[in-house]
Amino acid sequence: MPPQIPHSDPGTPDTAGPMRYLWWLVRRQPWRVLRGSLIGTAWMIGLSVRPYLIARAVDDGLRAGDTRALTFWVAAIVVAGAGLSYLGIMRHRTMTFIREDAKARSAAVVLRQLSRIGAVLPRRVAAGEVATIGGSDIDWSAQVLTLTGPGVGAVVAYAVIAVVLWSISPMLALCVLVGVPVVGLVVGPLLRRLERAESVYRKQQGALTARSGDIVAGLRVLAGVGGRDLFARRYAARSRGLLAEGYRVGAVNSWIDAATVAIPGLFLAAVVWLTARMAVTGDVTIGELVAVYGYVATLIVPVWFLLEGSHQLIRGRVAARRIVALLRLTPDDVGGPRRRGSGKVPDARRPHAAAAPAHPADLHDPVTGLTVPAGRLTGVAADDPAAALALADRLGRYVASEATWGGVPLTGIALDEVRARILVADHDSYLFPGTLRDILLSRTGADDDTRPGSDDDRITAALRAASAEDIVDALPAGLDTPLDARARTLSGGQRQRVRLARALLAEPEVLILVDPTSAVDAHTEARIAERLRAARDGRTTVVLATSPLLLNRTDLVAHLRAGRVVATGAHADLLDEDPGYRHLVARDSADPDAERSADAEKAYP
């Protein structure tokens, strides 16, 4: 089993660079790494003991005709083999623990980062990129830690064998000392080329994975508008491009794999040939010839480890660079101020964070000029949907801005405090797999005993406010019916009402709803507008929408045009006094949506 991280705390990673991150993985388990280095070194050096024992058996036993000496040295060879087997098992076991600990630690810090940065993630990192990081990059970065065991042992064994060969022949030792660096010089350019090719390939792979996820998520919509074949062709074209890039990476990999086998073999052949010539001239004995062959054959193992370790280091550095890029993102790492170098935004980890308002307070956004009064239901009708989304991000502190809460800059308040009291509910937010009950309670803090009423009572009230009781009635097991990721078995309107019910169950002090009824029919929308007002009575609520059914139930409406508030007032007053607002929310009289809304308003005044 992989090692468990104590107290589920992976620690604070060093994100100064990919190599610093890999070194942090090493430092998080120093005693285990030290044990792996000692065992790996003992195993590597132990490989060179057997050639020495064989040489003694040949010279002292066979050539001298001494049966007793031969028996002793043969027994020593058997004992050495058993000892090497034990060291090999312990080396492999220790290094497996080291790699698994590194994987678990990287997975923990990545998961913690994903939950921390929240809405920043889809703006900065594609879903495919995250999948690639969580899948293969974590594994490749952990593989680099093999260098701390057999890698260290390979260097020490190389030095020991060179010293032993020096005692037999300085010329042979010189060949070994010079030959191994030459091997590195031959393989080095291939490794650098591999790093460049790997970086390009992994980037394209992440982009293609993201595209495939988008296609699958929108398959039903694409089929409905006849765009499935078009997107399939585009995906196939990109896939062929990635395939060509993969062949390029594979070609470099194949040359490196071939080099790690062929070059040490050629090196062994050259040294054995030189030693055989020396044996013919009498410069070395037959036993020493056998020993040299054994030493050089043994040297192939550390040389192979060094070459393989270099290969792993290159791939691990590419993977660690991508992990570090993700870990460097901060919850406010989006938009202008941060990119222009305005400094970091305080959060819960910074002791100098400003205190949040003790009581419900007004929200103010200087960019639009909007002030959201505390305890009121405020509607915002924007002529540009992007401007409405940007406003929601600023009021929810998903971007760095000058927005204030009770006169206190939002960016100066502890982030945990903002998240606990201000909720931005997107109409298309992600639904994780689980029972409907679990999905609804995922934002409510169900462990909080201070909330009045049982979970079922509160769920029933929220479902009614979201006009979603029929969804529960239609499911075979009601609230306990399991749903898959994104709740694909539900229709778009049903999913939207489930999201609204989930947001209402959270009971935040400030609730910001982004187009919460865009996928429902007019009659359902009218019911939601009526019940939403009652459910949020006395609490600050912002509804970003252009639906007259919703806006008609608000206390105050702000008309946003070109990113600025141009008029505020009651919905009916703005219809009379602001032609732009009237055109935005009522549309053209021939528009069937407008007729639908007008009919619904009459049916549900």
Structural write-up:
This protein is α/β, with parallel strands linked by helices and 605 residues long. It contains 23 helices and twelve strands. It has two domains: 18-169 and 284-328, ABC transporter type 1, transmembrane domain (ABC transporter transmembrane region fold, Up-down Bundle); 363-602, 3-Layer(aba) Sandwich (Rossmann fold), CATH 3.40.50.300. Helices cover 64% and strands 8% of the residues. Strand 4 (404-405) and strand 5 (408-409) form a beta hairpin. The longest helix has 53 residues, at 228-280. The radius of gyration is 34 Å and the shape is elongated.
List keywords for this structure.
605 residues, alpha/beta, ABC transporter transmembrane region fold, Rossmann fold, 2 domains, 6-stranded mixed β-sheet, 4-stranded antiparallel β-sheet, 23 helices, 64% helix, elongated
Topology:
Elements: H1 18-27, H2 30-47, H3 49-62, H4 67-117, H5 120-124, H6 127-143, H7 150-168, H8 170-217, H9 219-224, H10 228-280, H11 286-327, H12 336-339, E1 363-365, E2 370-372, E3 377-382, H13 385-395, E4 404-405, E5 408-409, H14 415-421, E6 422-426, E7 434-435, H15 436-441, H16 455-465, H17 469-474, E8 482-483, H18 492-506, E9 510-514, H19 522-535, E10 540-544, H20 548-551, E11 556-561, E12 564-569, H21 571-577, H22 579-586, H23 592-603
Helix pairs in contact: 1-11, 2-4, 2-7, 3-4, 3-11, 4-6, 6-8, 6-11, 7-8, 7-11, 8-10, 8-11, 10-11, 16-18, 16-19, 21-22
